[in-house]
Amino acid sequence: MSTPVTTRPSTVSRLDRAGGACLVLGGVAFVAGGATHPGDSGQGDKVQQLHEMLVQPSWYPSHALLLLSMVLFTAGVFAISRRGLGASMATAAKVVTGIGVLATAGMAAHLFAALGADSLVAGRPTAVYTLQTWNETIIDTLWALSIVFLAVAGGLTRTAGNRVTLALGLAGGLAYALASATIAFTDRFDPLFPVGSLIGVWAVAVGVMAMIRK
């Protein structure tokens, strides 16, 4: 008479499910945050345009969603880095996780920048404006490029998505990076931000694939 053997879910499976869920929820929050982000009239200089956005009621809910997305993205990528990946891919995922932590802090600063909106009424650059400029042109751009790298590396090795998700992450990441890097200087590339929402679509697709991985 044989004794039934009960198998327990492996650590890899648990990490896949947890990381995948974080990426799915993070992707949804990213798209929703971008869709509700306040816009400006396009009139005046960049300081005046920033003030116009900061005083809109949608600033806080939009950036709360974007902050949540950064937290979930970072947690999801961290879970990926803990799986049984090759040494180079694991290291890459850990670097992207570190950039995600930095981007999370940056998005928290974005969220509370509205508290200093009154300082921009005069239309002159202030500490709030300077912080926003560095935050968007440096941190946001770096984060978007890290997503591009992860999407390409993960897609080619099939450790985080495939060649289809690679295209989504590449297009969305490059669009978001270019729009972020130039937002403080020109309005020309602002229309690329909606294209950047493909980052969220990439995250949902990669997350679902991770959760159903066998």
TrEMBL record:
The UniProt record lists the keyword Cytoplasm: no
Coiled-coil ranges (or none): none
UniProt KW keywords: Membrane, Transmembrane, Transmembrane helix
Source taxon at top rank: Bacteria
Membrane-spanning segments: 21-39, 59-80, 92-117, 137-157, 164-186, 192-212
Protein name: DUF4386 family protein
Species this protein is from: Microbispora hainanensis
